[in-house]
Amino acid sequence: MPISSPGLGSGLDVTSIVSRLMEVERQPLLRLNQQEARVQGAISAYGALKGGLASVQSSLAKLKDAVTFQATSAKSSDSAVLGVSSGSDAVTSSYNVTVNRLAQQHKLGSAEFAATATFGGSTGDALTLTVGTESFTLDLSSAKTLSQIQAAINVDSNETGITAGLITGDSGNQTLVMTSGETGYDNRVQLTFAGALDSNTFNFSLLNRDSDNQLLATENELDAALTVDGVAVTRSSNSISDVVDGLSFTLKEAGQADVEISRDTSIAVNAVKGFTTAYNQLKDQIAASGGLGVSGGVLRNIESLMRGVLNNGLSGLGEYAYISQLGVTTDSETGKLQLDSAQLISALEENPDSVVGFFSNEDNGFSSRLDALLDGFLQSGGTFDSAINSAKSRVSSIERNRDSMTQRMDAIEQRYLKQFGALDTLMASMTTTSEYLTTQLDAISNISLRNNN
User: Fold this and answer.
1) C-alpha distance across the termini of the chain, in Å
2) Which of 376, 363, 329 is nearest to 53 (CA)?
3) Whole-model pTM?
4) 327 secondary structure, DSSP code
5) Which of 15, 20, 159, 367 has CB atoms 3.0–4.6 Å from 60's, for a disulfide?
6) pLDDT by residue (tens digit) across 316-327?
7) Overall CATH class of domain 105-221
8) Which has the closest alpha carbon to 175: 87, 109, 246?
9) Where are the domains of the chain?
10) SS3 for 194?
């Protein structure tokens, strides 16, 4: 009778058996991975919340600045003649501006000379260029052509701002042209000669022309000239900001333009909108963070403190004590902020100083109070840094446990492979013995059958 052991012997699937056993052994490792994923999710959620709070804080920068609520806008009736901009110092008003003359960079041109003509060559010969308080001296003790003088002027060490050009006319002769770096009479090019040189050496003359293409009568006409409501004004630049407080003029061409200055409430409206948008985005982040491992206590604390700033009245700052009086209210269903721009604009027009006081007072204004509250969460080592650092410590601990557990799993797997390898070898040996015994019994049985016959 044959001896058999189904499923045993050298046919044992050691790899599959060990793999199944290791699936069970690795369950704690899987739980560690899941735990790490949850903690990493909490870190991301804390980071997103911190970013949301930082956005709210950033939106307060404009609200803390009184200029936001004092902005004006200026308009020119002819922008081709006159550009205009206004600042917070400007008052609502209008002006008539006539641009009579634009400021120019001073230009001097020499007489025409042959390209081979040289200048100087005697001891002490020099040409000094001066603009304002800056001077630059060319040593002409060695004679130079106009081309060489041009090159000597256009060097980095020349800090006068003067540049030199060279024009070759139809005759083949050359004219040296010097141009001041800035406009106006005070920035004109002044020449001083030394040695054997004098004003007749180069015979420089004024090249600047007016809007009718006529040569300027004097260097004084290098300055811009305009009238503002009939008041004569001359300046060395075409950009003028010291004629009317808070107004900057940019002269573009001769002509006339009317300037209108009005209060610009759009700057303040956009600043308050920026705050409400950042606040509402933070509300969404808070709602989304509840199931991501963020402390419910932290979330409730944020909402409670911010509601307190929104709902608590301020005193001693003017006509307004509550932000709701300036058009910012809370939706009863969503808890989000909404802005009535018309109400804010009305307040800006009726009591601008009170609006400035409410938002921008450095000691007790809305923006300063909320900013200080947010600092408590966002400052280094504050609520969020502590929570994030604690979570990162948990991740580090999980990583250490996983490394240790992974090493232990490797050892267990090797032990299983060794044990079941030995079992496989034993089963193979038993199979061989079984086959041998079966063969021997079959032989004995055959002998017995022959004897009986």
Assistant:
1) 21
2) 376
3) 0.65
4) T
5) 367
6) 889 999 999 999
7) alpha beta
8) 109
9) 1-71+265-441, 72-102+223-263, 105-221
10) strand
For the stretch 254-291, pLDDT in tens is 999 999 999 999 999 999 999 999 999 999 888 888 76
Tell me whether residue 435 is exposed, middle or buried, using C-beta atoms within 10 angstroms of its C-beta: 0 to 12, 13 to 18, 19 or more: middle
Rounded CA-CA distance 276/336 in Å is 8
Q: Are 443 and 48 in contact (CB under 8 A)?
A: no
Identify the H or E element spanning 236.
none
Cα 96 off chain centre by? 40
Which are the contacts of 453, defined by CB distance < 8 A and separation ≥ 6?
A: none
Most distant CA pair in the chain, distance: 156
- Token pair belonging to 226: 């305009």
Residue 172 — very low, low, confident or very high, per pLDDT cuts 50/70/90? very high
Q: Are 70 and 64 in contact (CB under 8 A)?
A: no
Beta strands in 30-87 (DSSP E): 72-76, 82-86
Q: What is the model's pLDDT at position 410?
A: 84
**Average pLDDT for residues 348-362, to the nearest whole number?**
93
Band (pLDDT 50/70/90 cuts) for residue 4 is very low
Question: Does residue 174 contact residue 168 with C-beta atoms inside 8 Å?
Answer: yes
CA 239 centroid distance within chain: 29
What does R_g of the chain's alpha carbons equal in angstroms? 45
DSSP summary character for residue 70: S
Q: What's CA 78's distance to the chain center, in Å? A: 35
In the structure encoding, which two tokens stand for residue 244, read together? 């009317």
Least confident of 145-149, 305-309, 344-348: 305-309
Q: How would residue 77 be classed by pLDDT, with cut points 50, 70 and 90?
A: very high
List b or e across 308-329, with b for residues whose CB sees 16 or more CB atoms inside 10 angstroms. ebbeeebeebbebeebbbbbbb
The amino acid at 443: A
Split at pLDDT 50, 70, 90, the class of 345 is: very high
Please name the helix (run of DSSP H) or strand (run of DSSP E) that holds residue 168, with its range, or none: strand 163-168
Write down the mean pLDDT value for the chain.
88
29 phi, psi to nearest 5 deg: -65, -40
The Cα–Cα gap between 144 and 174 comes to 14
Give 430: exposed, middle or buried? Use CB within 10 Å, 0-12, 13-18, 19+.
middle
Question: What are the structure tokens assigned to 330, written together?
Answer: 């809370």
Give the closest residue to 38 by CA, choosing from 286, 293, 294: 293
Residue in the block written with tokens 């008539």 = 96
